UniProtKB/TrEMBL annotation:
The keyword Cytoplasm applies. This is Tetratricopeptide repeat-containing protein. Belongs to the Rap family. Keywords: Cytoplasm, Repeat, TPR repeat. Transmembrane segments: none annotated. Its main location: cytoplasm. PROSITE patterns: TPR. It comes from Bacillus siamensis. SUPFAM superfamilies: TPR-like. It is found in: Cytoplasm. It comes from the Bacteria. The keyword Repeat applies.
Length: 376
């Protein structure tokens, strides 16, 4: 007769599994996941540990979707796991409730639903008293920093990312998170228009990325961010080199950030008047966005088409702005309103240029107001 495993023993192994997930150590995480799956079948009945196991499968999937192309392995979809979690969520409290809300926030962020993500993070924060692990608190602060950066709430983002980095700096094994913190810090400096302060953080991120195994996603992001930074500094030849390198890596390894890289690369080429090359990159970017199911960058590539190819298609531009505003992607509204105003000014259509300048200013005010996520 086979012995029944105590659930506490399996719980310890799930904790080790989560530790490997947070370190982005895919081989170790996969081994522990397989061991946990075997032991779950031999374990004594424990409803709460099964919920913890389902949550950790969800978190494992988020890690894989960040690092690896979707087509590399057969695995459950995020939606399938999400459905299981929501079905078992009723009545849970404490640490399980924290993980449920926190991981859901991560999912919404990956869907570029930044307001929803912050909403779940704020709910998770109410359960943070149950979190005693220092690294887990760093994870929480990092994810909030990332979400607030996406909303251009730069000062709030900086507050959280510093708290995260202060912890990660104490641990050698969390190099990936250190790199990601540097991306957020540099991005916030860009939003402050302090481009010269952004670049050193990105150069450090690139250096660290080269020291990480399975680093294609990090390398492509580092090259992308440096390229974008050089574009902001109006050093366009350097910007092209880095953006092209980012896109090549993403394309070679079928990474999910390819639509983003191709959009920024195409936009840079259009701005320099390299229209023929830009059209080819933009077409590739649209195909990539459709392939990856990335509605945001599908819409943004169509915007480039409307602005630069179709003799300023006003309805096409409006359609993109409507989509962005509906999804509260205000940072992109601000950027494309400015670009559209500049194109109209170049063609001496000053009334239309003025209209989009006003749209940009209105959007900046919207960003400054932020979303009211407080309950008092």
């Amino acid at each position: 007769m086979s012995s029944v495993l105590p659930s506490s023993e399996v719980g310890v192994k799930i904790n080790e599994w989560y530790k490997m997930i947070r370190q982005f150590s895919v081989p170790d995480a996969e081994i522990l996941k397989a061991e946990v799956e075997q032991e779950i079948n031999e374990m004594e009945e424990d409803e709460y540990l099964l919920i913890y196991y389902t949550l950790m499968k969800f978190r494992h999937q988020l890690m894989l979707d960040y690092l690896e192309p979707v087509t590399t392995r057969v695995r459950p979809t995020i939606d399938e796991l999400l459905e299981k979690i929501e079905a078992s969520n009723k009545g849970i409290s404490g640490l399980l409730c924290y993980y449920s809300l926190f991981f859901r926030g991560m999912y919404e962020f990956d869907q570029k639903q930044y307001v929803k993500a912050i909403g779940f993070y704020r709910e998770a924060e109410k359960q943070l008293v149950h979190v005693h692990d220092e690294i887990e608190r760093a994870e929480f602060h990092f994810k909030l920093a990332e979400a607030y950066y996406g909303m251009k709430q730069s000062h709030v983002s900086m507050h959280h990312v510093k708290q995260a980095l202060d912890i990660y700096d104490q641990y050698e094994l969390y190099k990936v998170r250190k790199i990601q913190c540097l991306f957020v810090i540099s991005g916030n400096y860009v939003d402050f228009k302090r481009f010269e302060k952004s670049l050193p953080h990105l150069e450090k991120a690139l250096e660290l990325s080269k020291q990480v195994n399975n680093n294609e996603r990090l390398l492509s992001s580092a090259y992308y961010n440096i390229g974008k930074n050089y574009g902001d500094l109006e050093e366009y030849s350097k910007a092209e080199i880095y953006l092209k390198k980012a896109a090549e890596i993403s394309e070679k390894y079928k990474l999910g950030n390819l639509p983003h890289s191709l959009f920024t690369y195409a936009k840079l080429l259009f701005k320099q008047g390299k229209t023929s090359e830009a059209i080819q990159i933009s077409k590739k970017g649209l195909s990539s966005a459709i392939y990856h199911g990335d509605k945001l960058f599908e819409s943004l590539q169509k915007y480039l088409d409307a602005l630069y190819i179709n003799a300023i298609d006003q309805m096409g531009i409006k359609k993109t702005i409507d989509y962005l505003e509906k999804n509260k992607n205000y940072s992109y509204v601000e950027d494309i309103a400015l670009d559209t105003a500049a194109v109209y000014a170049e063609s001496k259509q000053y009334d239309k240029s003025y209209f989009y300048h006003r749209k940009m200013i209105q959007t900046q005010k919207q960003i400054q107001r932020g979303e009211c996520l407080y309950e008092f």
